[in-house]
Amino acid sequence: MTSPTSNSDPEEQPAADHYRRGDRVALEHTSDSDTGLRPEAQGTVRRYDPQGQVLDVAWDSGSQLSLLLGEGDRVRRLPAPSSAELWQQVRDALRAAGAAAGRDAAGWWTQHTLGGQARGDVTDIARRVLSGIEDIVPMILDGLPTADRYHLAEDPERYAEHAPPDAPAWQDLSAQQRDQARWAWCDGYDDAAHAEAERQCRMLLHPDGDDRDLTHVHPDRVRLGGPGVFAGDWAWQPNADGQMRVPVGFVGILVDLWNGWAVFTCTREVAEAIVADQQAARDSLRQSLAQGGLPEADLDRVVDQSMARLSFDGDAIVADFTRLEDDPDAIERVSPDTDGRYDVMGRSWTWLPVHPYDCDRIAGAIPDPPGHGHAEHGPHRTQEAGD
């Protein structure tokens, strides 16, 4: 008589090197020297070709590297997750899928609200959106792409598309799990859509097209010892649309207040930009006077009586006020401090912190807020073999 164990169908007993879709694996070795994957990197099996011994894995890092098990690549099968861990993976996957949909929706919103299909002053719209998001203004938030949480019908097709391969089927979910699945997708959608809309607004308003959050250098946030963007109270000019703008703002550190005006220090680069801006203003005034009929012989004298001369003498800035103040001794030298920073016309000019989005250009690099390093975006890595 044959023993019960000998009746088992060999096909029902998966071999040690057989992998199914959804299996979790950890990398032990690969001969691909170009991959960024390292031993113990984890991923989920997508396909397995037992004849060619090719294992397609969706790695958690985003890599799509396929492994050639017949040529020495090795992985280790990980234990199956518990039901609680699997359900968390389901919710994470649905949230990620919702986030992708939210970002797409925000792209359409940008086109219609800020882009080529928008009407009116889009910069004013961007300002109001950023302010509304920061202050949690319902009227503004309601105008952003938002998942229809309360009328979203059950969507087993969406669930099947985005849930992990070994997730329970939709019809097997409890009512609570279905609610959790829908809300995971909706939460991902809303968070990503609002973040992308906010990023697009910042890019539109920032003079350099940067998408960083500059809340910490808004005028009402600038504090002694902290960074800000500064300009003279005289600097505001109307642009082609009639809006009052600051042609250039200067990045610095607020070190004092003088009669209500800002005193700040800046780098050599920013100091050079201030000197150049002053010279450009003098040139503009000179040209205007010449067009008004002032004789050439009087132009320099009248300009000097209206605006100081700034120039560099080695490391020091020379500020010549002699004609402006009718005093032959009215010459100041501004030397850098021990850190190489300049206080350009502090306590002499009426500087004030300005909103970075009110500037057409910003001289100097705005630092990140404390504890919030700005990740540099390097080149995108090309997809690896097997995708």
From TrEMBL:
Record region (Disordered): 1-43, 365-387
Record-annotated DUF4314 domain positions: 18-76
Basic and acidic residues bias spans: 15-37, 371-387
InterPro entries linked: DUF4314 (IPR025463)
Coiled coil: none
Protein name, entry field: DUF4314 domain-containing protein
Organism (species): Micromonospora tarensis
